[in-house]
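Journal club side-thread
Mid-discussion, someone asked how the predicted structure for our own chain would compare to the paper's figures. Pasting it here so we can look after the session.
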Amino acid sequence: MTQSLYVHVPFCERKCAYCDFASWAGRGDEEPRWLDRIERELELRGSQATGPVSSVFFGGGTPSALSEAGLERLCRAVSDNLRLDAAAEWSMEANPLSLTREKLAVARNLGVNRISLGVQSFDPSLLSRMGRAHDADQAREALDLVAASGLRWSADLIFALPGQTLEQFLSSLETLLEWSPSHVSFYGLTLEPGTDFWKEHEAGTLAEADEDLYADMYGAGVKRLAAAGIHRYEVSNFAAPGEECRHNQAYWDTGSAWLAAGNAAHGYAPHLRWRNPRGLSAWYDWADQGFPLQGLIAEDLDTEQRWTEEWFLGLRQAAGVDLARLEREYAKDPPRAAIARRIAAGQVEVVGGKVRLVGDGWLLLDAIAVELSG
């Protein structure tokens, strides 16, 4: 069983209009306080590890918003307290505004070997609409840095933004391809409660993207990346062969496990899922109490919940759902009639005993997963 580590960094340069993550702008002066506690939690997580860690992921928030000294302390806390596999993947999310040559060098020298860069768009008007802290030129400069670093790297884009056209999305994708990425993620905008975009939507000043336009953007993006040799391995993630993000793959594997550190960080072991306190102040208090188990929000998944997760997590991956494994592990017959209906509709296929989404099925992922897991 593979074991991973997620570390949540709650600081960011600016809160984006679409973001509902547990992160805050304007609290950088809390970095020393946060580091004292994250070091203690990583010491605890190291004592709980059952073996070497195969992947580490610094997410947030914006890990690159840490100071050089803070980033060094965080990296050392990981390597000092956890035993990493010799071939471990160690990723760090970064934003163009806060990623510097010096921070990149600190991260690389202390073990980080993969950067995930939040570009989101190269269109100035859309960057402003999202409330992003960087502009298009800063995105290009950051791409120059990571492309020359010798590290593996990925970049994110968002589509179906307010007022965004198909041409704007494809223009950003074409611009990104100028750096020959080996991994690209693109996500359709979702309106999350509490965000600025959600409030605008509730007030009637922001409309969600038309379904047909959403589908056109997604389909055109998939096709363009495939032409560049970057293939879909998960509904929103695309990679050249062998360049898939191993940490994310662990999240979608129900047989893997991961440790978690930081506020709102989620941990998982087969059948058991838990989350640290979400609020930063609540997490500080919990840390100062010694990270008691009763402070966790935990859920022990029953057989029906695990069966449902097998379908939702399996179908979101290009590899699909292994029917023979499900029959063996759950002693339950797959929904063959429902699968046959979806095959007839051209939305799934069964290849090598695995059910996989095809065609428009990728746009109907949730509905198909609900049907097949029911």
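Post-session note: The chain is about 40% helix and 25% strand.
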